[in-house]
């Protein structure tokens, strides 16, 4: 693959990553909890990697060509986002606050992060539309391999930005519980808004 193609894709990918959305909201909520930024980000990146695998394997085109499958995926993702958003809205994160039991385990945060991005049809559809445009049919590299490389470039950008968002929220809001609650509720509203927007788009 040409370096110019990778650079062009990186620029587009970075624009997508730095746009606040459900992933940002989840990274902020993890940062407000204190020590769960890394597992939360790892979970979200796993969801993005899954979307890359789906597109590289050619499964994405099959799903996109079946409206019922796409609708079910959208509803599942939106339901989960609304559930997470509702929890943040009603019980906003407080800096350093801990919850007892499995709910505050790293695996739990990683799994929720995976669901936030892996069940987000917006991520899937974006990858389906975006990744193939930056491949080169004349390249000696197989098309699936090119898509995987592009996906890894996106993961690197996401890793840097989401860690910065999560740890930035922790550093800035750790001594401001009132502001942290407001930001937590705003994150919940963002998640619910993303979910409702996806549902409206699917109905259209």
List the keywords:
single chain, 204 residues, mainly alpha, 9 helices, 77% helix, 0% strand, membrane, Lysine transporter LysE
Q: Shape from CA axes?
A: globular
Mean pLDDT: 79
Report the strand count.
Answer: 0
Order of secondary-structure elements: HHHHHHHHH
- Radius of gyration using CA atoms only: 17 Å
- Main sheet, how many strands, which sense, barrel? none
- Taking pLDDT < 50 over at least 5 consecutive residues as the criterion, the unreliable ranges are none
Query: Helical amount among residues, as a percent range?
Result: over 70%
Quaternary assembly: single chain
Cα distance spanning the termini: 38 Å
Domains (count): 1
Number of helices: 9
Structural class: mainly alpha
- Give the strand content: under 5%
């Amino acid at each position: 693959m040409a370096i110019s193609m990778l650079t062009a894709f990186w620029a587009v990918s970075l624009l997508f990553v730095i746009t606040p959305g459900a992933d940002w909201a989840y990274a902020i909520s993890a940062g407000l909890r204190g020590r769960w930024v890394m597992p939360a980000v790892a979970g979200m990146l796993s969801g993005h990697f899954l979307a890359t695998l789906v597109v590289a394997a050619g499964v994405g085109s099959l799903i996109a060509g079946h409206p019922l499958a796409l609708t079910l995926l959208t509803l599942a993702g939106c339901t989960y986002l609304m559930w997470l958003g509702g929890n943040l809205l009603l019980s906003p994160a407080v800096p350093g606050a801990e919850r007892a039991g499995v709910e505050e385990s790293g695996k739990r945060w990683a799994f929720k992060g995976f669901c936030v991005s892996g069940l987000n049809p917006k991520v899937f559809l974006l990858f389906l539309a975006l990744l193939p445009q930056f491949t080169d049919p004349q390249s000696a590299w197989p098309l699936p391999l090119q898509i995987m490389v592009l996906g890894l470039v996106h993961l690197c950008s996401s890793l840097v930005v989401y860690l910065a968002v999560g740890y930035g929220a922790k550093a800035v809001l750790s001594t401001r519980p009132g502001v942290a609650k407001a930001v937590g509720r705003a994150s919940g509203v963002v998640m619910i808004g993303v979910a409702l927007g996806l549902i409206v788009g699917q109905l259209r």
